[in-house]
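Q: I have 118 residues here and want to know how they pack in 3D. Can you give me a structure?
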Amino acid sequence: RGPKIDENVAREIINHRSLRHPNIIRFKEVVLTPTHIAIAMEYAAGGELFERICSAGRFSEDEARYFFQQLISGVSYCHAMQICHRDLKLENTLLDGSPAPRLKICDFGYSKSSLLHS
């Protein structure tokens, strides 16, 4: 951490902390030290959706629909809150550890809020 917080980190903190939705990884707190900044978030025991697809090879139509509906729900909520993620990809979608995993959108470093003009 230098004299000023990186623009993407500041944007992630400002935009992510305002979001509360079951398909968005929960923002918990920011910890600042003289040399580092840490963002604490909900733990997603299921890992990345990307890894799940790689290990499965492919999804059935039902499984793909199950995850896609959750993704759209999270994105729709972000847009309703005037926040655009701008970096949606498999690596930025995590899964909780439940037997029927819930998709969680993460990494709001490139997000933009029309309310804050960030």
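Q: Anything worth noting?
A: The longest strand covers residues 27-32. DSSP finds three helices and seven strands in the chain.
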